[in-house]
């Protein structure tokens, strides 16, 4: 066991290990490297992988670039996406400078002997490095001490989604890279070429989405242990609504139109109209259940597709209720024909009695005025006051009854066949207006 001690500015590092973690003590590496690279022996002098470059001094500048190989799945129920990326990191380590102007690709297993950044993916649920046939890592060393470190990673990252406009929604997802242990005093993250640091995302072909745009950001994560550098790739995904139009919107619209067929069937065809109404209601219910099954974990959202299916269900149920109202009014009208004739005769008699009473009252009043001028008193036996009071109550009762009949007749359907006639026009008209407001709101607001 050997111990190596080296004095650094502001720090003294002591490392004890069975074998020094340097490139010089790898079997057959020193001799071959020394003959092929002038000055390669500089790499063997006290390199310590546990200390970052410029330890105790300025922070290490780490430039990153990304290649998006694929986005295999985007889950609305779990609110995440799974992507395979090629992450490339570049930084300069002055301890690895050698003479010449060449670059050399080293065995990926040498990464265990070098200092590398502790970059991790923020909001990652599951991630792994590919290792077929060997670990998919790349180490390339340049003469000025620059190191290129590339990884192939598959990761599942959380993506907060707003599904209120589903399936006409646009989702914004992020891929965030951050240093786990080194704060901004130790490392600084930058994009290598700005937005051009990301490739492959514009060529993606997704089943339900289209990539609208993407851009890169440089940010900081303020935490209790310090301020850490963070790089953000933000991209917008617009859902392809054509599938849902063919799968849900068109069938639900056709079911609404099918419910209107009952308006052209006579009121006497009870089995036909009832069958159409019940069948369309059950079919619409099945369609609504099927649309919810694919998003079983997101039912807390009132989605745009739920609103449309609710509208269609309301119109279909309204067509069934319309027939019930029309048929009930028709049966009531037929049953009320005979009693209405008898009540009409009674009303005529009451009108005659009221007219006679009015005439008698006016005659008595004029007679009393005449005899008052001649000082002739009218005996109370000549006029029956109780009869006059009784006739007055009957008159008030008749007036109130007449008003009630008028109010009831105002809300009574006089001709039930007109219900179907007006429904043929009003139902399609209102359905078209609701569709105009629906599509205008969810597409442009």
Describe, in plain words, how this protein is organized in 3D.
There is one protein chain. The chain has 445 residues and is of the alpha+beta class. The chain has two domains: 60-239, Acetylcholine Binding Protein, Chain: A (Distorted Sandwich); 241-334 and 402-444, Neurotransmitter-gated ion-channel transmembrane domain (Methane Monooxygenase Hydroxylase, Chain G, domain 1). Helix content is 39%, strand content 27%. It has seven helices and 14 strands. It has helices at 30-36, 242-259, 270-293, 304-335, 337-373, 385-411, 417-444, and strands at 2-8, 11-17, 60-75, 80-92, 103-106, 119-122, 124-129, 137-142, 146-158, 170-179, 187-191, 198-199, 209-223, 226-239. The strands form three sheets. Strands 3, 4, 5, 7, 8, 9, 11 and 12 form an eight-stranded mixed beta sheet that branches. The chain has a four-stranded antiparallel beta sheet with strand order 6-10-14-13, with no helix packed on it. Helix 3 runs antiparallel to helix 4 and helix 5 runs antiparallel to helix 6 (385-411). The longest helix has 37 residues, at 337-373. The two termini are 71 Å apart.
